[in-house]
């Protein structure tokens, strides 16, 4: 099963990021392979690579949080197996770069983790409760390992931040 990906770059800070298309394509392919989600044939998603200012506006509008975040996911409503559009993932460059440096990770490794995280939200995973967070994080770890990355949660606590499933999720 393949997913068509509409990659949108809306901020010039992403222009220096080589291989963005391939990184996105390979990450989504692995997410699909590892989850075996019942996706509609020919489904698609969009990934918007933007900046902190834009994601801050979206975060304020959809989550009531007037601050930038790393990733937001906007799930298309309806049964997964019948959704031709899975939804939208939005990622902010400055936050990704800052967090990667703080976590001593490469930019690409952190970006890949955020793509995994955002995709899982689009197909119904969440981390509102500790049990959900454990399940989602285990899957994120498995996908990251399959992509040759280190454990994205090594040395961190469970992600149990409140999110609005079906609207948006942020702050991995």
Question: Would you kindly provide a written description of the structure presented here, covering whatever features stand out?
Answer:
The protein has 172 residues and is α/β, with parallel strands linked by helices. Helices cover 41% and strands 15% of the residues. It is built from five helices and four strands; from the N terminus they run βαβαββααα. Helix 3 packs across helix 4 (107-122). Mean pLDDT is 90; it is low at 157-168.
Q: State the order of secondary-structure elements, H for helix, E for strand.
A: EHEHEEHHH
Q: Let me know the number of strands.
A: 4
Oligomer: single chain
The main pleated sheet reads as: 4 strands, mixed
Task: Report the β-strand fraction as a percent range.
Answer: 15-25%
Helical fraction equals: 40-55%
Strand order of the largest sheet: 1-2-4-3
Number of helices: 5
Contiguous uncertain segments of 5+ residues:
157-168
Rounded mean pLDDT score? 90
Q: Whole-Å distance between the termini?
A: 27 Å
- Shape type: globular
Structural class computed from helices and strand pairing = alpha/beta
Indicate the radius of gyration in whole angstroms: 15 Å
Please give a quick description of this structure.
With 172 residues, the chain is an alpha/beta fold. It is built from five helices and four strands.
Could you name the key traits of this structure?
alpha/beta; 4-stranded mixed β-sheet; 5 helices
């Amino acid at each position: 099963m393949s997913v068509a990906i509409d990659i949108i770059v809306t901020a010039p800070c992403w222009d220096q990021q080589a291989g963005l298309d391939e990184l996105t394509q390979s990450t989504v392919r692995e997410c699909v392979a590892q989850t075996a989600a019942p996706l509609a044939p020919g489904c698609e998603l969009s990934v918007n690579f933007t900046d902190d200012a834009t994601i801050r506006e979206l975060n304020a509008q959809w989550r009531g949080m007037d601050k930038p975040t790393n990733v937001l996911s906007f799930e298309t409503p309806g049964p997964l197996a019948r959704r031709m559009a899975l939804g939208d993932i939005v990622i902010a460059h400055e936050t990704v770069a800052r967090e990667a440096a703080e976590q001593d990770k490469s930019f690409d490794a952190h970006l890949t983790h955020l793509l995994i995280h955002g995709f899982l939200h689009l197909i119904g995973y969440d981390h509102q409760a500790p049990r959900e967070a454990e399940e989602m994080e285990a899957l994120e770890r498995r996908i990251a390992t399959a992509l040759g990355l280190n454990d994205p949660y090594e040395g961190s606590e469970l992600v149990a931040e409140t999110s609005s499933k079906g609207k948006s999720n942020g702050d991995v």
